[in-house]
UniProtKB/TrEMBL annotation:
It catalyses: Ca(2+)(in) + 3 Na(+)(out) = Ca(2+)(out) + 3 Na(+)(in). Keywords: Antiport, Calcium, Calcium transport, Calmodulin-binding, Cell membrane, Glycoprotein, Ion transport, Membrane, Metal-binding, Repeat, Signal, Sodium, Sodium transport, Transmembrane, Transmembrane helix, Transport. Residues 370-469, 485-586 form the Calx-beta domain. InterPro entries: CaCA (IPR051171), CalX-like_sf (IPR038081), Calx_beta (IPR003644), Na_Ca_Ex (IPR004836), Na_Ca_Ex_C-exten (IPR032452), NaCa_Exmemb (IPR004837), NCX_ion-bd_dom_sf (IPR044880). GO terms for biological process: calcium ion import across plasma membrane; cell communication. It comes from the Eukaryota. Coiled coil: none annotated. One of its GO terms (molecular function) is metal ion binding. One of its GO terms (cellular component) is sarcolemma. The keyword Membrane applies. This is Solute carrier transporter 8. Signal peptide: none annotated.
Amino acid sequence: MATELISTCPTNYSCAFSGTILPLTNESDWKLGTRIFMYLIGLLWSFLGVSIIADKFMCAIEVITSKTRLVDIADDRPDGQRSKTGRRTVEVTVWNATVANLTLMALGSSAPEILLSCYEVISNGFQAGELGPGTIVGSAAFNLLCITAICISAIPNGDNRTLKNGGVFGFTALLSILAYIWLYIILVPNTKHEVDLWEALMTFLYFPMLVIVAWAIDKGFFSCRRKKKLHIDHNSEVAESGSIMMDNLDKEAMEGDPSVTVAIGDGPRHHFEFTKSHDEEVGEVAEFMKAIGPDKNLTENEIAQLLVKKKSDNMPKSRAFYRVSATRVMTGGHKVEPVLSDKILKVMENLKNQTSDITMENLGSALPRKTLDTSDHSLIAVVEFASCDVRVMENAGKAIVRIHRMGNLTSSFTIYVETMNGTAEADSDYLEFKGNVTFSSGETVREIPIAIIDDDIWEPDETFFVRMTIPDLESKVVFGKWDTCTVTIINDDDPGVLEFLKPSFLFKESCCVAYIPVQRINGCDGRVSVKYNTQDLTAISGSDYHGVSNGVLYFEHGESLLNIEISIINNQSINTLGLNFQVLLSNATDGARIGNRHLTVVTLVDDDAFGSLVENVASIVTVDLKKLNIGSSTWASQFREAMSVNGGDDADATFIQYLLHFLGFGWKVLFAIVPPPCFLGGWLCFGVSLLMIGILTVFISDVASIFGCLIGLEPTVTAITFVALGTSLPDAFASKTAAINERYADSAICNVTGSNSVNVFLGLGLPWLIAAIYHKVNGSTFGVPAGSLSFSVVLYSITAIICITLLVLRRKLSLFGKAELGGTKIPKYLSSLFLVCLWIVYVVLSSLQAYDIIDPI
């Protein structure tokens, strides 16, 4: 009986020995179709699992690379806000962004491919396999061609994204091609079908060389415009507390300060642990609520959602953030970006249509500045910009920014004026201005000419800022309403359209004066005027405010934003619902036209009621922002998030999100045992996650090998198709999200070229070095068949050169909008289609060679 049972269960059946661990059971009596289906599902499910554990890995990397420390620098600010000690503390990142992207970030993206290659070499008795190298080359082709194609098409029609740091991209792109050319050299002409120890060692050592040179390029060591060096002072003391997040100190703290002294003021801290004080948060919420205006249809929670969304949009985001976000969208996990209802999305769209740009830069901080009520200025000189918004045509040659002086006209004083980059950048869009401006006795107006650079490159309207500061705290001069002016460079010579900035405004009863902005859009040529008057609603003129009839607002040439001033009467009689009146525009002159927002409603609210509302919203914002942290702080919270759709935020969960959560539930609960990223600065989570990825990689290797064997695919073809796509999909979604949300293309495509280089130098260099050492010790040679691999390498190099050439042409040609990503509809889709076709050609030709239909190189 035992003999009969054994004979009915043969062990030597089709693809029985293709895996190291799998199959776990005897599959000899399974139908071929059943086995193919089960292994396909297993392969897809394992890709889902590796995406989820890579999420944990990326969370650890985000914590590690976002580590900051406090440094103490000389306080040479000319704005009269110097500390008594003459020093100030700033917060700087420990990791250089370029180094982080090419080391930990690239490792996070490529860990499955790298570990798969290492495992395959070791499991094959230190002999080269085909799955690992094939996956690395296949992933490189998919990343460069398909992800770039996705990013080009993802940008909305007419919009574009350009590379900001072209030097680093150019270097990594060149090196990604040279890396594969190097592989061909060591596999074919030099020592054919062998890899010597020195070749493996050089391949591995190219990785630190890549990082060092890229870092040097980023720091400007190969540029004629070198950054200044820092002088470390370890004995200085920390002056005042502060939190000025900077990419690194060289880029920000050194600007305009030739004598910066740095001292470590505190140990490492993480950026998400730095929060504003309660008073600052409340002040920010109050300014935001005034900016969006009253809307009785918005609840406290909805106002908080708007502010959380604005804060989230303006926070700097790393590659790890986008990778984590993409993975959680794919798996129905805890969201790291706020989810908004349709109602809030409509409000957001309305806010975007208003030119007020309610950003974190102009929300306004609650910190006091040197200013006072301009109605009491008999002894004090008051200076302010004539307009907080000036517009100038690009071909005008210069922008004139006027500073008005009021109050005491007999004194003489000096203020400091400087320009700051916005979307327009100094030396490419305008010439930087920094210097003192002196008002003599009796002088009431000063004009600051700022040169505008007229180039032949198409660009949307761009802005920069002009800021005034007061060097001397004791000087008898203060600011009026505007100490910062926005300058917009446009291509329009129309007199423009006049309308209110928003359909409604909110003011506290105690504000004394309500400043209601009127904007001039679609042109700012010439001097124009518009009449305005007020009308009572629930507020009564003479009792609640001082009404105006037949008021006139004059716009000088180039001015695009002025205020109507309405005096408010503080009679402390406003109910909790508030009182309102409306202001209307009429009779625009000199060719100007009245826009759609010719009427605005002004609501006056009681100070106590408004304060209570602001406090409630601030509390909600604080809680909601904590929910957006990409890493959990405890094991308990990790398990709660793992067992709940959207990490517990299931109010708006869709069927698809429930389905994705169900499919990944087992992996989520299993990987919840990984230590939270807040432990030991993220390194414990990093190590355990890497171990988990390694274990899962063994499983993927076996499943992919057996699946390829069952359907008759060569290991190389399986590697460049199924395995390469499965390991690269999260990166594709991450790059697409980064392309849409970021201002520049760097986050979307720079990681591609960097990761491709790292894949070669680590993914092949490390396992080959291990195997070469083993064979050197044992007196044998490390054989690496050049056939399929060398053909794929050469083919990839050709397609990579074509792809990078296309990106260069897109940057140079107006047809593509002179940008790497985006542009007009037809050219951008044709670019994407061309790159996808290149990838298909790569896969088809590599497959034909694997089956010996095409001769190897």
